[in-house]
Write a structure and sequence with these properties.
Layout lengths: L1 H12 L1 E10 L2 E6 L1 H5 L5 E9 L5 E6 L6 H5 L12 E3 L1 H5 L4 E7 L5 H7 L1 E3 L6 E6 L3 E11 L12 E3 L2 E3 L4 E2 L5 E2 L1 E2 L5 E11 L8 E15 L11 E8 L1 H18 L6 E13 L1 H52 L3 E2 H7 L21 E4 L5 E3 H10 L12 H9 L14 H5 L21 H5 L10
Parallel strand pairs: 6-7, 14-15
Antiparallel strand pairs: 1-9, 2-8, 3-6, 3-9, 4-5, 4-8, 10-11, 12-13, 15-18, 16-17, 16-18, 19-20, 20-21
Helix pairs in contact: 7-10
Length: about 475
């Protein structure tokens, strides 16, 4: 909204000297502007505008002489050839097919560098011609306005600032009115279609510049201080290369431009690319596949780690459930009881008064467990024992769950001796033998067993 208001104000302030709408035919038309150029003072300048109503295939040129030779005029489309005939064209507007092309005419003498950069034509001998070349029949409007010497041709676009009749553009915006948008080529990963890039020489960290692509494309490289005109792509290669010498020269040209206009300019190359297919950076493509490979490997490693952690977690849960189940089975098969309750149910001759594992005597209130082979141990002692052993510490009878369950179904028989009570050794020999850590080989108790030590052992009688 603000730009529209400023445009209206600028139009109302500007002094329109000539405006004419006409039908343009294919070919060249020449319009003398000598009367306007001769009346121009040092305090003013002329703005010549060509507005295309029907199509955007016409080109406006301001020349010192009347250039009506078609072949000579065609050379203006080539880089720097307009100097041969002292002509100036709004080449950027033509390339970008803008509806309006604008050129400024001034009596001030200025370097060609400044003239090209800001689309300013320096009048010599009060001679100037507006020459229009059309590819197709079209409706055109030619307007000539008088503006102040310190006025910009149009409102500066994209945060540009008008200073002494020149638009000072920010980085990335081109053209005498900052209307052309370009992209940082360092931040670009692929090329497609017609694109405009800039290479900032201030932030460039190498002496030269090379960009390797995965396939060829058409491109043109311009030092923007030397020529602000966007040119048709003329090179075709898979490598975009700018030499160190070209970079130094571009910086020097930018400095000369700054000294004359007292404006801030960016040392930059403008790179125009054009391709119908997608072209990527070769280095980026290699990095892309390297990144994919690294990510795939890391993802695989992470997946394996997660799988292992999951299996470990599930195994811990399984072991915890098994431990609870085993403890419940252990409690069911060999419940912990007070020693006095257990001793009341066992014949006096079988009652053990000492735990064969810790070798401490039982107390009436001691928590004990009795195996199916009728051996008694401290509850905690037997639990610790069975963590590493599945056999009775005394008789080596199997104490695994399956054996205990099978033995629980069959009550062991009491083998009685002559004295009316069962022999301990006879009862122990009834149970299956089991390898263990105590001194038990054939199923009988070792002499070192505390139980055997507590039993009276009769010496054999002398038969003699």
């Amino acid at each position: 909204m603000i730009s529209i208001i400023l445009t209206l104000i600028q139009t109302s302030v500007a002094d329109i000297l000539y405006q004419n709408s006409f039908n343009s035919t294919i070919g060249i038309q020449s319009i003398p502007l000598n009367q306007y150029c001769s009346s121009l003072s040092q305090e003013n300048k002329l703005r010549v505008m060509l507005t295309q109503q029907s199509n955007n295939h016409s080109l406006l040129a301001i020349c010192q002489t009347n250039l009506i030779d078609f072949e000579k005029f065609q050379t203006l489309f080539q880089q720097d050839n307009y100097h041969d005939y002292n002509c100036l064209v709004d080449y950027n507007a033509y390339i970008l097919e803008n509806q309006t092309q604008q050129i400024v005419l001034s009596q001030q003498k200025m370097p060609t560098l400044v003239s090209q950069y800001h689309n300013i034509f320096s009048i010599e001998n009060n001679s100037c011609f507006a020459i229009i070349y059309s590819k197709l029949n079209s409706i055109l409007i030619l307007t000539i306005e008088r503006i102040g010497i310190d006025d910009c041709v149009v409102n500066c676009k994209n945060q540009g600032i008008c200073i002494k009749g020149f638009c000072q553009c920010t980085l990335g915006y081109l053209g005498f009115d900052c209307n052309i948008v370009s992209s940082n080529i360092h931040q670009n990963s692929y090329f497609h279609g017609l694109q405009i890039f800039y290479l900032d020489l201030i932030t460039l960290q190498t002496n030269d510049y090379k960009l390797i692509l995965n396939s060829e494309l058409q491109y043109t490289i311009i030092c923007y201080a030397n020529s602000s005109h966007l040119l048709f792509t003329s090179n075709q290669n898979s490598i975009i290369y700018i030499t160190e010498e070209s970079i130094i020269q571009c910086k020097e040209a930018t400095e000369r431009l700054r000294i004359f206009t007292q404006l801030r300019y960016y040392s930059q190359f403008v790179i125009i690319t054009n391709t119908t297919s997608v072209v990527k950076l070769a280095e980026l493509e290699e990095q892309y596949y390297s990144i994919i490979l690294v990510v795939s490997v890391l993802a695989s490693i992470l997946g394996v780690i997660l799988l292992i952690m999951t299996l470990i977690y599930l195994l811990k849960i399984y072991k915890a459930k098994q431990a609870i189940k085993n403890k419940q089975q252990f409690e069911n098969l060999m419940p912990a009881q007070q020693f006095m309750l257990v001793s009341d149910r066992v014949p006096e001759i079988k009652v053990e008064t000492t735990c064969s594992i810790c070798l401490e005597s039982f107390k009436s209130s001691s928590l004990v467990r009795m195996t199916y082979c009728e051996h008694i141990f401290h509850s905690t002692c037997l639990e610790k024992w069975m963590k590493n052993n599945k056999a009775c510490p005394l008789c080596r009878a199997g104490l695994d769950t399956q054996t205990i369950q099978s033995k629980k179904k069959i009550e062991p028989q009491n083998f009685k001796g002559k004295n009316g009570h069962g022999s301990i050794l006879q009862q122990l020999s009834f149970f299956p033998k089991h390898d263990g850590t105590l001194h038990s080989i054939d199923g009988s108790l070792s002499y070192h067993s505390p139980v055997i030590k507590s039993l009276p052992i009769n010496q054999p009688k002398n038969l003699n």
